[in-house]
Structures are given as structure tokens and as C-alpha cells.
Amino acid sequence: MVQKYQSPVRVYKHPFELVMAAYERRFPTCHLIPMFVASDVVEEETNEDGSTTRVERRCALDVDAPRLLKRIAGVDYVYFIQKNTLNRKERTLHIESHNETFSNRVIIHETCCYSVHPENEDWTCFEQTASLDIKSFFGFESTVEKIAMKQYASSIKKGKEIIEFYLKELEDEGITHIPRWTPSSLPLPLPRPASLFTSPPVLPKLAVTPDAKQDSSALQPDSLSEILAGTPEDKLDADYIKRYLGDLTPLQESCLIRLRKWLQETHKGKIPKDEHILRFLRARDFNMDKAREILCQSLTWRKQHQVDYLLETWSSPQVLQDYYTGGWHHHDRDGRPLYVLRLGQMDTKGLVRALGEESLLRHVLSINEEGLRRCEENTKVFGRPISCWTCLVDLEGLNMRHLWRPGVKALLRIIEVVEANYPETLGRLLILRAPRVFPVLWTLVSPFIDENTRKKFLIYAGNDYQGPGGLVDYIDKEIIPDFLAGECMCEVPEGGLVPKSMYRTAEELENEDVRLWTETIYQSASIFKGAPHELLIEIIDASSVITWDFDMCKGDVVFNIYHSKRAPQPPRKDPLGPHGITSPVGNNVQLIDKSWTLGQDYSMVESPLICKEGESVQGSHVTRWPGFYILQWKFHSMPACSATNLPRVDDVLATLQVSSHKCKVMFYTEVLGSEDFRGSMTSLESSHSGFSQLSAATTFSSQSQSSSMISR
């Protein structure tokens, strides 16, 4: 497996020429890098005007490895070849390094770049990337990989100290300015190597160098994050990471940057914020593949349910405002937002019967979205990264009524959704006044909670929370709620029993769920075996562009586009569905009359596109003729056995269980004039997005007039 590293942008608040002077002092040897033994210049050349110098060196490293491993390998030192290109006119230094020793067994490659800050020409930026590919090493591949990654991470952290040391040395000698290169000036001293994978030139973990004479007010952390982390093509700055994301190891920084870059390159939708990406990495111990999988699943879920707009569109029903005993209440001692839930006073059965699971889930999601927003605010207020919140749960009043089976089922579903889509958002859970029935509830709930999350639980029985090691250790005494013998008034509702007059039937709740779905720009439709869903689009001007974006929430379908010169009859809603069975309830519309003949009454303008469950499909079609276009989603079933004409068992069962053959699609379509379509018409070719959480496999369907992008 290839190990990769990508650094954030390290910023020196010093001019490029001064940083190069500090960089040069690391050689020919550096007492701060004991493993760097020596380096020899193999080749050197400078162009006629002296603006560009190219140097190739052979560097020797004394790698800190077990003596036995060195004896087996038969070497004492590891040699690297490094090629530096210093462009004084452009004020850049490019470094490329690769290993010479064991190059047929191990491939190490590193690139680095020093350049001028894009917003301040008196500052210097540094970036680096590296890769390690161990093909074979006498059966010690895993050991060598661990040693290499450990030492590389160590050298990255040390790089900051080294540059700061030599910048301070220059300052002590009175050297605070070096003039820029001009055509008549002499060449600057040549830079030399230093790194781990290369030789020492790599200077990772570059932070701001303290300099009392530098005016740093020109670019404060807030503006710096906006400049360096504000566009899809941006790069993360080391100071921004430390200020807003926390202290990360070099390899953790690398995972964040690489996953972020992958999303920018492959994800067609909204890119999540850096702190949110970091939560998914932490949830999977910075395993890139695992974090990418769950993050992609979550992004698909957010899009399908329009979660990004939840705070703007969701308004809590009055019954929730009156009887849901939870709310935000100041913050804890660490600056984390504090959420108070009086679970023991909550009528969970009444809320589920009055609202249904969907509304209750949406309310909990809105709480989590509000928590993310409050974390961002507190990060700015307290001047340190705050990425999670504290939850205080008061269980006084908890009894067997709270173990009502549908209520527990709703709770488990909510926990499952929150765990999957809001990982690492719970910093601490304080459970107070746990009664005897609590162990029963805990036995039911705990298997659905991630192990790392369970470690954050603190449980207090009776009044134990009032003693040493109790609530005051985590929350300031001044903001402890009054119902916990504190001094602060808490505006969380006291709850009580939901009146049975507010209960609703299952049918009413189901209709309410459909209404909530259709409040967004997306529409939902059901597709059944023998009952496709069809959408009519009338085109007046040829060369218009039909665009679509749909998600397969359930089942597999075949997507088709047809054209007809005549308008179909009004939507047909037969009382009987296929096979003479009553058609299931749902927004399912059929437009193509059974008497129509393909090729005469209507024609297919696209090749069929098979869309699997979980896929997100975006595409467009440039119309050739005016008329009526029909977008069709049709149930996709496996072809029958070709060896016999007899019906298969599955086909017979399908006639009896139509409801088992149900697909659900959520879609949005729009018609644009060709002059308004953003994108070149010549680029409208079928392609698939690499954004995939279900499968890495992709298939292509070339269409001269259409473009379909599928995300799995």
C-alpha cells in the first residue's frame, strides 16, 4: 500500500530571501538533525543572468532503525538524490527528492516548494508532498513502513524548530533584511538539502516565526482563513489549522488535506467545512478509506433530506415547543455549548403519537445543526477550536412508561442517524439522577452507541452530582440550572403529558411525512413493477437544455427520455395496478398510453441508463426538436432465464407481492435556454463522478446529446 503525505501551507512571516538564507545555514551538516550525515554536490549550473540555479546533491542519512534490520539490509546509511531549482527572479525554490538506496524495493518520492505568499510579498509559504511505496524488504515490509512514517513525522515537526533557530541566529547577527535579486545582483547562496525522506531540506510544520519587528496586523487569523481557505481551489494554512481545528500531528494534517482535496475533485455538491471533515476522520482514527466511506454516505443523506437547509426551513410544531424538555443553556467550562435534556420529564409516548418519528427526528437533527453552528460561534468567541458540545441529561422521573416499545424504537433510530451523520460532536454526556430503571434502558440503547462515544458518558445516581467530582467540575456554578439546585434560571420546558386529543393516526402521520418531503425543491415518487413514474416537460424552443438531479432512495430503476410531437393524455391513475392488484398509494404518474407505439407515436432520445440504489444522478439533455419530452423512471428487474419460457418463481411471487417491488426516487428537473446553460455544449458527454460511497466501479454510457453523472 502506498503511504502519502500532504502538508498544509506553512507561512513564514519573513521575506523569501531571508528564509532562503536561514535555510542555507542547515548545511553542509546540521547539529539539529543528527540523522543527516553529509551531502555532496553532484551537479550544479546557473543560467547566464544568474536568476536560476539548479543543484543536484547526493545525501546520506543515518536512519534510526534496529541494528538487526540494518545488518540484514547490509547498509549503514541510506542515500537520497535531491534536485533543487532556485528561481531568484520568481522567488521560488522547488525541491524534488528520491531514494537511491533500495530503489528496486522501496520507492520514496518527495516534492517541496518555497514561494511568496499570494497576499503578502514579505511572507513566505512552504508546501510539501511525499509518498512511500514498499514493494518488498526481506519480509520486514510492515516494520520498515512504521519506522519510515514515524521518523518522517518526527522530522516534519522538527523542521519548524530548525528554521526558527536559524532565523533567530540571523537576527542576533543583525541580519534582518536581504535585498531581492535584480539582473545586476550577485546570485544568492545556494540552498541545500534537509529532510527525512529526502535529505533534510523539507521544512514541514512551519508555523509563524515570532518577530517583534514584523507587523502582523496586516493579516489576522480570521482574514487569513478566508484568504487561504475560502474557495474550492484553496489550500489549508498551518496557522488556520491550529487556530480553528486544533493541534494535529503532521500525518493527521495530511489526512485532512488529502480527503478535502479528494472531495473538491470528485464531489459535485457542497463541500463540507473542514471541522466537519475532521470529525469523520477522528471517528475512524484517521483511516482515510473508512472516513471517506462514511462521509460520502452522510453527504448523500444530507442531500436527500435537504439537511443543509434544515435550520432555515424547519419550524418546530407547537407541541414540541410545549412538551419537548430540551434546550441550549450557556456553555461548559471548556467553552463547549451546553444542551440540557430533562428526559425524565418528557412524555416520549405522547410526542411520538402526536408527531410521529419523522418530525421527532427532524427536530433532533435541527438540534444537531444548531450545535454545529454554536461550535463555530464559540470557536470565535473563546479563541480556540471547539468542535463538540456537552449534553446534560436529567433522568429524574424516568420510569417504565419511558420503555414504551415504539418510543424506544424511535430513540434507537434517532441515535443511529445521529451516530452516522454527526460523529465526534458529543464532547461529554452528563447523566444525572439515574433511577433504578436506567440500567434497563441503558442495556437497550448502549449497543447502538459507538464505543468512543460511550467513553464520554459520566453517570451519577441520586444526588452524587452535587459532591466532589460532580457537576461543578464541568460546569460553572453560576450557570447550573435551578432544577438541579443551581442559581441559573433554565428556560427548558418542564414537559408533562401530551394531551391525547393531540394524538394522530398512522395515516395522518404518513401524509404529514409526504407533505414535509414536498416542501423542498425536490419531489419524490414511487415506482412499482409494471408502473413507472413519468414526468412531462414541454419544450417550445429547440436547443433548450433539460437538466435533472435525482437520488435513488430505494431500489434500482431504468431511466429513459422520450420525445413526442403530441401531448399525452392527462395523467392516468388506474384503480387497479399491474396484475389486477390494487395500485399502492403514492405519487406515481403514467403518461405514455398503452396504445402508443415506440418509433411512431413517440421516440427514445437517450439510451436507457440503469441506476442503482444509493446512486445520485446528475445530467442534462440538449433538445433537438420542440414538443413534449417524457422523463421516465422504470422498475429494473433481472432478465428472465433464457433456457426456458416458463415463468420464474420470482416472477410468480412478484404477481402476489407488488409492494415488495417498490422503488423510491427523489428528483429535481429544470429547463434552461442554451445561452443560460453554464458549461460548454461540446462537453456534454456522459460521465460518472468518482464520488462513491457504495462502489468504486463505474460504467459509462456515451451520448452525443446528453451528460449523466452518477455518484454512488
Automatic annotation (TrEMBL):
Residues 518-671 form the GOLD domain. It holds the Pfam family CRAL_TRIO_N. GO terms for molecular function: RIG-I binding. SUPFAM superfamilies: CRAL/TRIO domain (SSF52087), CRAL/TRIO N-terminal domain (SSF46938), Supernatant protein factor (SPF), C-terminal domain (SSF101576). Residues 316-492 form the CRAL-TRIO domain. It comes from Sander lucioperca. This is SEC14-like protein 1. Residues 3-175 form the PRELI/MSF1 domain. GO terms for biological process: negative regulation of RIG-I signaling pathway. Gene3D superfamilies: CRAL-TRIO lipid binding domain, GOLD domain.
